[in-house]
Write a structure and sequence with these properties.
By secondary structure, the chain is α/β, with parallel strands linked by helices. Helices cover about 45% and strands about 20% of the residues. It is built from eleven helices and 13 strands. It has a five-stranded mixed barrel with strand order 1-2-3-5-4. A five-stranded parallel beta sheet has the order 7-6-8-9-10, sandwiched between helices. α4 runs parallel beside α8 and α5 runs parallel beside α6. The longest helix is centred in the C-terminal third of the chain and has 44 residues.
Length: about 400
């Protein structure tokens, strides 16, 4: 018995296919144990069942905790219990049936791209405020393209729209979207890019979770806005885009402002500016009136008149004092002139005196200094004569 069980366990646990197996079924019973959650999966016809266990360490990692009556798809590995002769599925992951594999692929790609930093908010670029040219990527036959055109025309007439058609559903959609992005970038005129499609089932939107498309949007040189369907769950393209909304119309509303709203805002600013100017003018007028009233109370005109009179009186005093001082100075100068006149040697000569000079020009002051025959110069009141000493008397 033990040998057979060991052999069966060896066959099952060593099988590569059974080490990683997907099983779909309905949860028929659950039993929460201290070591984990035990439950049974059975097919819809209840013709087959398998026992499963999700250990406590794995339970928080499950996308869907098994509950009775639910349809699940679980990922796990088979394990044989020798003592009971039973086999059991050890569960690693569980998803709602129908979306399980797709959800798993979504989570794997999301975790990998998130680890690379592609969803980092710091990577997101700001959108241009008033773009003149925008690019649009969607299906040319989809209602989304019509909604976008209508919204842009209503909100921002005259805007240049570059349409780059793409398949937005099916196996060919990822490469078609990537090619459409490349066309817009190569053109070089678009300032912002809308990637959009209408609503749809989860599987119809799978191209917007394709890793190739996500990387193309992340590497796009133009800011990208996504408006993909009405799904509550965000696609990976939404996460990597610079801005994301839920409908094509919302994307068109986000990419350009409404000229009507801009005009209304302009009118409001003009009115506010007028009010501000009027308020400033009234304040200035009130302040001027207050200053005028204050001037009237201070009677500055009378003060100025008094100051002018005082200044005039001081001016007269200054003129009077200056006149007296000038008169005294003139008299003093005249007195000094008379004194100088009396001391002037020429005036003495005019009274009959003479100045005797030696040949070297020095004044002869004593007869002792003179010798007979010496020539002298005699300066008179008028003119000068040359004389020769004929006799010297020293008395």
């Amino acid at each position: 018995m033990a040998g057979l069980t060991d052999y069966i366990r060896f066959l099952l646990e060593q099988d590569e296919e059974l080490r990683r197996v997907w099983v779909t079924g309905e949860v028929s019973s659950t039993n929460k144990h201290r070591s984990g959650l035990f439950f049974t999966l059975q097919d819809r016809e209840a013709t087959a069942a398998i026992k499963c266990v999700a250990w406590n360490g794995q339970l928080p990692k499950l996308a869907q905790v098994p509950m009775s009556g639910e349809q699940l798809i679980v990922l796990g590995s088979l394990k044989v219990y020798r003592e009971r002769g039973e086999y059991q599925l050890t569960v690693w992951q569980a998803f709602p049936a129908g979306a399980g594999l797709q959800a798993l692929r979504y989570q794997q790609i999301r975790q990998r791209l998130e680890a690379e930093g592609l969803f980092d908010p710091q990577r997101k670029r700001s959108l241009p405020t008033h773009p003149q040219t925008i690019g649009v990527i969607t299906s040319g036959t989809a209602a989304a393209w019509g909604d976008i055109q209508k919204t842009l025309k209503q909100r921002y007439p005259g805007l240049q729209v570059l349409f780059s058609p793409a398949i937005v559903q099916g196996d060919q959609a990822p490469q078609s979207i990537i090619n459409a992005i490349k066309r817009v970038e190569k053109d070089g005129r678009a300032e912002v890019l809308i990637i959009s499609r209408g609503g749809g089932a989860v599987e119809e939107l799978a191209c917007f979770n394709d890793e190739r498309v996500v990387r193309a949007v992340a590497n796009c040189s133009i800011p990208v806005i996504t408006g993909i369907g009405h799904q509550r769950d965000e696609s990976l393209v939404d996460l990597v885009a610079d801005a994301a909304v839920h409908t094509p119309t919302a994307a068109a509303e986000l990419v350009v402002p409404s000229l009507a709203e801009l005009y209304a805002e302009h009118q409001q600013r003009a009115i506010a500016l007028q009010e501000c100017v009027r308020y400033s003018f009234e304040r200035a007028e009130n302040k001027l009136q207050q200053m005028q009233n204050r001037l009237r109370r201070l009677r500055l005109d009378r003060q100025v008149q008094q100051d002018f009179q005082a200044l005039s009186w001081k001016r007269q005093q200054l003129i009077r004092a200056t006149t007296v001082r000038l008169k005294q100075s003139v008299q003093h100068v005249e007195m000094l002139r008379q004194k100088l006149a009396t001391l002037d040697p020429k005036a003495v000569l005019h009274r009959g005196y003479a100045v005797v000079r030696l040949e070297n020009g020095a004044i002869a002051r004593s007869a002792i200094e003179l010798t007979v025959g010496q020539e002298l110069s005699v300066q008179l009141g008028q003119g000068e004569v040359k004389v020769k000493v004929v006799d010297v008397n020293d008395f």
